Amino acid sequence: MDDDGGASPSHHGGAGGSIRLQCECGFKDDYSLDDTEDGRFYCGRCYGDLDTQATAVDHADFQTPGNMSFHRVSQPTKTPAPYPAPYPGQPPAAPPFEESHEPRDFVPGAGPEELGARVRRRYVEGLQVILQQQLQVLVERYRVGALVCGVAGTVWLRWVAASKVFDGMWARKVLAGAGAEATQRLMKRSASGGEQKPQGVKCEWADEAAPQKDRRRVEFIYMRSLRTMLPLYSTLSVCFLACHIAREAVLPTDIYRWAMEGKLPYVAAFMEVDKLLGSPLRHCPLNARQLFRPVRVIGAWQLEAAAGFVAQRIGLQLPSVNFYAIAQRYLDELSLPIERILPHACRIYEWAMPPELWLSSNPARVPTRVCVMAILIVALRVQYNINGQGVWEEICEAARNPGGSDHDANLSPSMKPDVDTSEELGTRELLWTLVDAYDKIDVAHDYSKDLHTYLRYCKDVVFPGIACSVEEEHLIEIFQDLYKVREDENSKAHTTNGANKRGRDGTSAGARCVSALSSSGIQSIKSEMEDHGFCYMPPRKWPKSDGYLHYRRKTMTGHLVCAGHADYYLLLRSFAKLAEVDIRVMHASVLKLERRLGWIEERIGRSLDALQNLPS
C-alpha cells in the first residue's frame, strides 16, 4: 500500500540517443536526454552526480560508454522586466529563479536543516493544493455536498500534525537514519564478499565548498522521508474519509476510477502545483514532477484501508457507512424495485449491525461495500424465495421448447407483461433483470474504449508536459488518420451485417442473445461456475421445506469449493461485478452474514424460552 515513489520517473528511449554510465556506488544504467532536467545526469540509486553534462550534439556522440563530459551551449536570455509590486509603496518583487543566472541546484545560505525545512514546506503546501483541487472537482463535477470541504480541511490538519512531519528534529533524524541504512548496506555487501565504497551522508557543509553530489543526495533523502510520512495517496484517502463522515454515497471504487481516468486530479496534478504556488527553484531545488508525481494509483481495497488508518491515527470515532444511500444506489444501478427491497434490507441492517460496515485500517479485511451487498442478497433471497427451487432451469427448459405452456419464459424483461401474479413470476422476472443488468455493467475505464481515446489519455494524464518534435507529431497524425479510416470501415461493416441479419429473421439482436442464452443457459452457467471455483448443484426435487437454504464450502481435491444453485449464482455474480470484487469474496461475506443472523436468532429463541419459565 505504500507509495515508494521517491525518485523522479525516468523516460527511456528518448530522441537524443542513450549513453551508459556507471556511478561510484556501482550502479549502471542507460541514460538519454530525457533523463536530465538541469543539464546533468544523476545516479538512479544514490542520486549522485555522474559528472557528465547533456549537450545538444549528434546522436553518435552518445554511443561511447564511460564517463564523458561535454560543454553545454546555453542560449542567450533576454533581461526580464521587473515584476510589479504586490502592494502600493513596496519595491518591485525579484524576478523568478528561472530567469536569473544562478545554477539550478544552488540554494543561497541553506545548510542541511534549512534545505530540509524548505523541501518540507514545499511538499506539504503542494499536497494541500492537490487536495483542494480534488475537493473542488468532487463538489462541482460529482455533486458532492460542500460539507466535505470543511471536514477534509480539519482531517488534513490533524493528519499532518499526527505524522510529526514538522518536528523540530525531523531533518537530523532523517539524515541519521539514512546514514545508518547506508552503513547497514555496506556491512551486508562486505559480508557477501563485495567491495563497495561507503556512501555516507554529510550533515554539515559550507555553502560554496559543498559537493553537488552530497547536496543532491540529501535532497532526495528528504523527499523519500516526506513521501513515507505523508504519502501522495493520502490526499485521496482524506477525500474518501471526508465523504464517509459527511454521509455521501461515494465509494472507494469511485475515487479510484476517477483518479485513474484523470477526472480527479492526482496522476497529473503536479502540473498545476507550480502555477498555483509559484516557482519553487529559489527556495526548493526539487521540481513538482519529482515531488508530486505518483508512481501508481492504489486500488479501492487499499484506499479504504488507508482512510481507516488516517481515522485511527488522528483518533476519529467514525460512524458506519450510509447504508440507505449506498444500497439505494446499488439497487438503482441493477434496475431492481427499490420500494420492495430496500425497507426489508434496512431492517436486516438495523437488526444485525455487522462490524464490517465500519472502516478498518486492516488491508486484509473485506471492504464495507461487500457487506452492504451481502445484506441486499439476503433480503432478495428471503423475499423472492431464491433457495434452489430450479427456477432458472425451468426458464431454460421452456426456452428450448417454445411450444410449451410457459410462453413468457423466453422473453426479455422489456418484452414480458407487467404482471406479478405469483411469487414464481416475480422470481423469474428478477432473474431476467439480473442477467440483463450483468451484461450492462461496465467496469472498464473510459480511456480503453478506442485507440484515439487511449492515446489522448496517455498524452494528457500519463505523460503530461512531454513535448514531441515536429516529425513525431506529424507521424502521430498520420497513424491516427489511418486508424480512424479503418475504424469507420469496421463500424460500417458491423452496421450492414446487423441490418441484414435483422431483415432475415425479423428479430432484434437483444432478443437473439436472450434466446441463445436461454437455450444453452445451464451449460454456460455450469462452465462459468467452475471457472470461478463454484460447484453446480441441481435443483432440489423434494425440498423438505420452503425455508431459507444455507450453503457451505467444502474442500475437494485440496481446493476450497463453493457449492450453489444456478439462481443463487446469478444473484451473486451480478452484485459481485457491480461491487468490483471476486465472486468468492462476495459469497464468503454472505455466509458470514448468515451465520451472524443465525446466531442472533438462536439467542433470541433462548431468551424467549427463559422468559416463559419465569415464575408468575
The unreliable regions are: 1-16, 53-109, 205-209, 404-421, 498-519
Mass-distribution shape: globular
Spatial gap, N to C terminus: 61 Å
- The helix-and-strand class reads mainly alpha
The value of Rg in angstroms is 31 Å
β-strand percent reads: 5-15%
Mean pLDDT: 77
Name some characteristics of this structure:
about 625 residues, mainly alpha, three-stranded mixed sheet, 7 strands, about 50% helix, disordered N terminus
Please explain how this structure is put together.
The structure is a single chain. The protein is mainly alpha-helical and 616 residues long. The protein folds into 4 domains: 9-74, no CATH class; 108-313, no CATH class; 329-443 and 510-608, no CATH class; 446-505. It has 20 helices and 7 strands.
Question: How would you briefly describe this protein structure?
Answer:
The protein is mainly alpha-helical and 616 residues long. Helices cover 52% and strands 5% of the residues.
Secondary structure layout:
Blueprint: E1 18-22, E2 28-32, E3 40-42, E4 49-53, H1 112-140, H2 147-163, H3 170-191, H4 212-229, H5 234-245, H6 252-260, H7 270-277, H8 288-292, H9 300-313, H10 323-333, H11 338-352, H12 368-384, H13 391-400, H14 423-440, H15 451-462, H16 470-505, H17 509-519, H18 521-531, E5 534-536, E6 553-556, E7 559-564, H19 566-579, H20 583-612
Parallel strand pairs: 5-7
Antiparallel strand pairs: 1-2, 3-4, 6-7
Helix pairs in contact: 1-2, 1-4, 1-5, 1-7, 2-5, 3-4, 5-9, 6-9, 10-11, 10-12, 11-12, 12-19, 12-20, 13-17, 14-19, 19-20
